[in-house]
Amino acid sequence: MESGSDVLATFLWGLRRYAVVVLAMVVALGVLVPVLLSSRAEVYQATAQVGPNSKLQLSNTNPLPRFAESVFNNGAVELNIRTMLKRTSGNIIPSKVQLIAAQDNVVLDVVAHAPNAEQAILIANRAAETFVIQLNMYENAVAPFVVAHQAVFAKKVPKFAGGSVSIIFGLLGGLLAGVALVGLAMVVRRPVVDVSNAQDVTGSPVIGRIRLPRHGPVKLPPDDRAVGLLGRLLVTSAETIHVAAPSQTQAERFAGLLTEVFGRMPVVTSLQKKQGAKPDSSSPRPKVVAPRGLDEWFSAQDERSYTVLLAPEGISARHLRVFAEEHDTGAPTGVVLVTNQRRRAKLSRKR
Predict the structure, then answer these.
(1) N or C: which end of the chain has fewer CB within 10 A?
(2) How far apart are CA 345 and CA 36, in angstroms?
(3) Long-range contacts of 155-163 (CB under 8 A, 24+ apart)
(4) How far apart are CA 13 and CA 209, in angstroms?
(5) pLDDT confidence of 149, banded at 50, 70, 90?
(6) Cα separation of 30 and 37, whole Å?
(7) With b meaning 16 or more CB within 10 Å and e meaning fewer, what string describes 215-247?
């Protein structure tokens, strides 16, 4: 089970790795959406009010909204407005006109939308008149209705509500959405980013962490203590060190780097160390190879071999587990975390 610190480390790694996702969500919700809304055509809104001119036949107003909506949507209002606008396609309700029937309110608002104020006023009044005719067709159903207030002016609909405040909320919403997406990706993918994760997944100790560029020549800085310590840790009684990585190219590059490490430093084998011997540049170095394919991998193993599994930082736990199981030969095994970031490597002294 991952500890709280492991979860936090994984989440922070995900934020660094997928920062572009967070940035994209911030730009989309905080910038693009307001820009698209602000670039749309202007819309004007006008409202006419319809209401009863006598006492209602109902004991309460609860059924009134449902009755009004049913009558408003029976087709008569839409046909009248469609004929007036000479439109043969597209919807009229609610894109051009709609009914707002609030609960516990006998006033019914007929709201019209149009590209100019004059047309919005005309649509609202024409729809309200047709609506009243349809309501009064039901004798003694509710009460006689009239157009209580005709639309006399139209106001411009804001292209996006809230102005600059909405942009701020859009930026915050995009940030939260991006962070949530990254968190979801970390839960689903479960990337391996630290020592404890790698050890739990593979069942083998992590002997180090090293930066290995994906492209270009592999350079070994003279003051790279991480590589030096890694080399000393791997100088065991094994005669051959086998390197495996999800990418064969990466395995070969690391094998070449490790060979260079052994060529630079004096070594002492485990047996010599027990006997109190000092490092000697003439001591035999273990041979480092990166076998190709599983057939070659198993045929190359022997009793005096050591296995190094490279785990690229961010590899999913499932893929790393399968990879470790495929290359399990029973030989002593160590895991090396590989990162492309420019960071100081931290090595575990566990073998």
Answers:
(1) N
(2) 47
(3) 155/44, 155/45, 155/46, 156/42, 156/43, 156/44, 156/45, 157/42, 157/43, 157/44, 157/45, 157/113, 159/37, 159/38, 159/40, 159/42, 160/33, 160/34, 160/37, 160/38
(4) 15
(5) very high
(6) 12
(7) eeeeeeeeebebbbbbbebbbbebebbbbbbbe
Q: Tell me the two tokens of residue 178.
A: 């991006």
Find all residues with CB under 8 Å of 330, minimum gap 6, and list them.
none
Burial of 174 (0-12, 13-18, 19+ CB in 10 A): buried
Q: Which residue segments constitute the domains of the chain, with CATH numbers given?
A: 4-39+161-189 (no CATH), 44-155 (3.30.70), 195-339 (3.40.50)
Q: What is the pLDDT of residue 168?
A: 81
**Helix or strand or coil: residue 213?**
coil
Q: Which residue has the tokens 């052994």?
A: 262
Q: Is the pLDDT of residue 52 over 70?
A: yes
pTM of the model: 0.55
Region 158-163: mean pLDDT is 61
Q: Mention every residue, 6+ apart, whose C-beta is less than 8 A from residue 315.
A: 191, 192, 246, 323
Long-range contacts of 316-322 (CB under 8 A, 24+ apart): 316/189, 316/190, 316/191, 316/192, 317/190, 317/191, 317/192, 317/197, 317/201, 318/190, 319/246, 320/192, 320/198, 320/201, 320/202, 321/201, 321/202
Distance between CA 343 and CA 91 in Å, rounded? 60
Asked if residue 158 has a cis previous peptide bond (ω within 30° of 0), the answer is no
Band of residue 217 on the pLDDT scale cut at 50, 70, 90: low
